[in-house]
Amino acid sequence: MKNNIRVQRAIKNITQAELADLIQVSRQTINTIESGKYVPSTVLALKMARVFDKPVEEIFELEDGD
Amino acid sequence: MKNNIRVQRAIKNITQAELADLIQVSRQTINTIESGKYVPSTVLALKMARVFDKPVEEIFELEDGD
DNA sequence: ACTAAATGTAAAGTATTTTTGATATAAATG
DNA sequence: CATTTATATCAAAAATACTTTACATTTAGT
């Protein structure tokens, strides 16, 4: 699973902390997801997609290992 | 989080066991997700979306509580 | 260079997801 | 009806997601 949350944040020009607030998780959760340390739940993925106004598939992408 | 996995399975005419095989999880995992007992990871959501050839948003939907 | 804001990281704990195995019920088919 | 196939459920363990607190590092602006 890779993601381009950093890019999407850049487009919207919001910080990790702001995104965390918007989807009601801790800042560290955003940070660790963003840096690929773990895969978020579908609820978080949908919330991010909603914030960024992009389909989930455009933010999260399956990789070979998955 | 609600989902319409059962409907999507019906459209493709596959069993829980077959879907489980296709996305490499146990049959129980499909069953419990399908019956709303828990929220799957984004990896599972993306895999299902791929199997059903539908965007994640069309299979999983956020609810008020989420 | 100094400062403040943003990001990275770590440890410890809680909560949730997923698996496995077993069993039960329901639905479909001969 | 009897048998097979599909779905539901349960309990316990393993794995993973998420929180909190706290501190270190990087980045950007002045």
Provide a descriptive summary of the structure in words.
Chain A is mainly α and 66 residues long. Chain A has one domain: lambda repressor-like DNA-binding domains (434 Repressor (Amino-terminal Domain)). Chain A is built from 5 helices and 2 strands; from the N terminus they run E-H-H-H-H-H-E. Chain A has a two-stranded antiparallel sheet with strand order 1-2. In chain A, helix 2 packs across helix 3. The N and C termini of chain A lie close together (7 Å). In chain A, 27% of the residues are buried. The first copy, chain A, binds a DNA duplex (30 and 30 nucleotides) through helix 3. Chains A, B: Keywords: DNA-binding. Chains A, B: This is Transcriptional regulator. Chains A, B: GO terms for molecular function: DNA binding. Chains A, B: It holds the Pfam family HTH_3. Chains A, B: InterPro entries: Cro/C1-type_HTH, Lambda_DNA-bd_dom_sf.
Assembly state of the chains shown: homodimer
Secondary structure: helix percent of chain A: 55-70%
Q: The biggest beta sheet of chain A, please?
A: 2 strands, antiparallel
Name the chain pair with the biggest interface and residue counts per chain.
Answer: A-B, 19 and 19 residues
* Order of helix and strand elements from N to C terminus of chain A: EHHHHHE
The CATH superfamily of chain A is known as lambda repressor-like DNA-binding domains
CATH C-level category of chain A:
Mainly Alpha
CATH fold descriptor of chain A:
434 Repressor (Amino-terminal Domain)
DSSP summary, beta strand count of chain A? 2
In percent, how much strand structure appears in the residues of chain A?
A: 5-15%
Gyration radius from CA atoms of chain A, angstroms: 11 Å
Query: Which of globular, elongated, flat, extended, rod-shaped describes the shape of chain A?
Result: globular
Name the strands of the widest sheet of chain A in spatial order.
Answer: 1-2
- The averaged pLDDT of chain A comes out at 96
Number of domains of chain A: 1
Number of DSSP helical runs of chain A: 5
Tell me the CATH architecture of chain A.
Answer: Orthogonal Bundle
Structural class by SSE content of chain A: mainly alpha
Q: In angstroms, what separates the terminal alpha carbons of chain A?
A: 7 Å
Low-confidence stretches of chain A: none
GO molecular function, one term (chains A, B): DNA binding
Protein name (chains A, B): Transcriptional regulator
InterPro entries (chains A, B): Cro/C1-type_HTH (IPR001387), Lambda_DNA-bd_dom_sf (IPR010982)
Pfam families (chains A, B): HTH_3
